[in-house]
Amino acid sequence: xxxxxxxxxxxxxxxxxxxxxxxxxxxxxxxxxxxxxxxxxxxxxxxxxxxxxxxxxxxxxxxxxxxxxxxxxxxxxxxxxxxxxxxxxxxxxxxxxxxxxxxxxxxxxxxxxxxxxxxxxxxxxxxxxxxxxxxxxxxxxxxxxxxxxxxxxxxxxxxxxxxxxxxxxxxxxxxxxxxxxxxxxxxxxxxxxxxxxxxxxxxxxxxxxxxxxxxxxxxxxxxxxxxxxxxxxxxxxxxxxxxxxxxxxxxxxxxxxxxxxxxxxxxxxxxxxxxxxxxxxxxxxxxxxxxxxxxxxxxxxxxxxxxxxxxxxxxxxxxxxxxxxxxxxxxxxxxxxxxxxxxxxxxxxxxxxxxxxxxxxxxxxxxxxxxxxxxxxxxxxxxxxxx
Length: 387
Prior knowledge:
This protein has helices at 12-27, 50-55, 73-94, 108-117, 136-145, 155-163, 177-184, 190-197, 220-232, 250-262, 275-284, 294-297, 329-339, 342-349, 360-370; strands at 3-9, 31-38, 62-64, 98-102, 122-125, 149-152, 171-173, 204-209, 237-242, 267-270, 287-290, 305-309, 322-325. By secondary structure, it is α/β, with parallel strands linked by helices. The strands form 2 sheets. Strands 3-2-1-4-5-6-7 form a 7-stranded parallel β-sheet, with helices on both faces. It has a 6-stranded parallel β-sheet with strand order 10-9-8-11-12-13, with helices on both faces. Strand 1, helix 1 (12-27) and strand 2 form a beta-alpha-beta unit. It starts with a strand and ends in a 17-residue tail after the last helix.
């Protein structure tokens, strides 16, 4: 009997991680892929990236508009409310056997809450991780408690999901999907990327992504200004920015970045590079700068150094290629300078990514093809104190 597996995607980065898994689901003889696009994918302000899904050859069964009109706490809460209505209707129409969600963003909350109420099992990818500077931390763990199958990236994260009371038999360490994306992608040449971007790389190049640290309200503008001040000091360095996600306070950050780019001809900003261009860019530049998880989970596989700023990613397992620093401009400048230090460049040659060597998508499909779904909705708490 064919299982209908519904994948939910709300952001450009998330789709990049899910893409290989979706391809494997399509190829599996006993699985049928269903797909919902929501969140930033449907927003022109963030590049209407649902078109990237369609260009990749995937049919979108339903689009659920969260009405991302603003970025205040009230706006985000309203978006979650719109999502609740949309997902409830979607599940009634599509009747999936399993819902798959990835990560920790607010777009996932209406998807998993509606699945819980509709008694549909949920498989959660990349649970058990910690990010102390963002409310994504709480969302991730809440999604874990509303999910039934767990596919984590490391043994440490597996232990944390079990610590949350989840049955070890349903918690699988499959490795990171970001590593999968790199392994399966044939990257562009430098010239191909330059022609695609309309941008010429220099002798030194940096890729910058800075998102709001949502648990540090009111500080994100100051933190980004400090980063931009550090970048302003650089000479003979080309700068490529990818714009922030649809989080609280993101609009002001986007405005700051656009003004910086307008006054610095050696820099460019893009709402979305797309997976191929982003990974190629990451492989070419001298370092990834900011507070994005891609600098933690993907950059080490490409032997690219990362300057991780502030607390947004605090708590994640990190490779030796990651340089942590505070949000002050002098600390950022010092960390960027270290990217070019000969001893650090030597470390990059042998760096090992703690998120594995690939194969996560195949492992996940293997499990969801075979696991018994009936009865998963009744989930006893796995109490470590009683074991």
